Amino acid sequence: MNKSRQLGQTDLYLSPLGLGTWQYSTKNSSGTSMWGNTEKETVYEIIKHSLQNGMNWIDTAEIYGNGTSETFIGEVTQRLQREEALATNPFIASKWFPLARSASSITKTIDDRLEYLQVPTIDLYQIHQPTSRSSLRKQIEAMVSLAEQHKVKQIGVSNFSAKQMVKAHHLLQEYGMTLASNQVKYNLLHRSPEKNGTLEAAKELGITIIAYSPLQQGLLTGRFHEQ
C-alpha cells in the first residue's frame, strides 16, 4: 500500500485505505442491522488480513449496532495482540451519534466507547452528523474536553457541509486545535464534494476528506452485472 498520509494537520499518519466496519453491526440473525448476521471469526479474518497487508486504521461508530461494531473491533484487536499477529496496534476512529441528542451525551457516552473498543484513547473521534439538539459550539466544547482528558486524540466530523466544516475548524482553533477530517460520501457515482465546496474548503484549511462508500457499497467493484 502507498506511503501513509498525514491526517489533516495532526501527528497521525494513516494508510490511504482504512477498514470501514458498518457491516459488523449485529452478532446474530435476530438483530436489526441491514447487513444481517455477522460471525466473529469472519470479522477476525477480515481485520487480520487488512492490518497485515497495509492498512493501519479502523473506522467505526457508536450507531453501528449500538456498540456491536466497536465490541467486535475491541475483541479482535485484543486477540491479535495476544497472538502477536500485528507489528503495531491500529489507529481507531469512531463517531458520536448526535440525532435528537444534546452535546452532554458526548462526555456521558465516551467511557462506553473506550470499554467496547478496549483502548484508553480513541485516535479520531468524530461528530457523525450535523443533527444535534445542541449548538456546534457546545459539541466542540464537549469534544475538546475529551481531548483534554486524553480520552480522544483528534477531532473530526462526518456528513458536514463546507460551511459547517469550516465553522467547526474555526471553533477548534479557539482551543489551539484544528479539525482533522470530514468523512463524507465520495465516489465515482457520488461526486458532490467536488461541486458543493467541501473539497475545496478542506484543501484550503488542511482538513482531510475521508471518503465513505468509495465503492458505492459494491456497485463499483464490477461484481454486479445485468442477467
Explain the overall architecture.
This protein has 7 helices and 9 strands, in the order βββαβαβαβαβαβααβ. It has helices spanning 40-52, 68-82, 104-117, 136-148, 162-173, 192-195, 198-205; strands at 5-6, 13-14, 19-20, 57-59, 91-96, 122-127, 152-158, 181-185, 208-212. The chain has a 7-stranded parallel beta sheet with strand order 3-4-5-6-7-8-9. Strands 1-2 form a two-stranded antiparallel sheet. The longest helix has 15 residues, at 68-82. Strand 6, helix 4 and strand 7 (152-158) form a beta-alpha-beta unit. The mean pLDDT is 91. It has 227 residues and is an alpha/beta fold. Helix content is 35%, strand content 17%. The radius of gyration is 17 Å and the shape is globular. The protein has a single domain (15-217), classed as TIM Barrel.
Regions with little confidence, pLDDT below 50 for 5+ residues: none
State Rg. 17 Å
Q: What gap, in angstroms, lies between the N and C termini? A: 35 Å
Number of domains: 1
H/E topology pattern: EEEHEHEHEHEHEHHE
Full CATH superfamily name: NADP-dependent oxidoreductase domain
Per CATH, the architecture is Alpha-Beta Barrel
The tally of strands reads 9
Helical content class: 25-40%
Number of helices, counting only DSSP H or I runs of 4 residues or more: 7
Largest sheet: 7 strands, parallel
Instruction: Please tell me what the overall shape is.
Output: globular
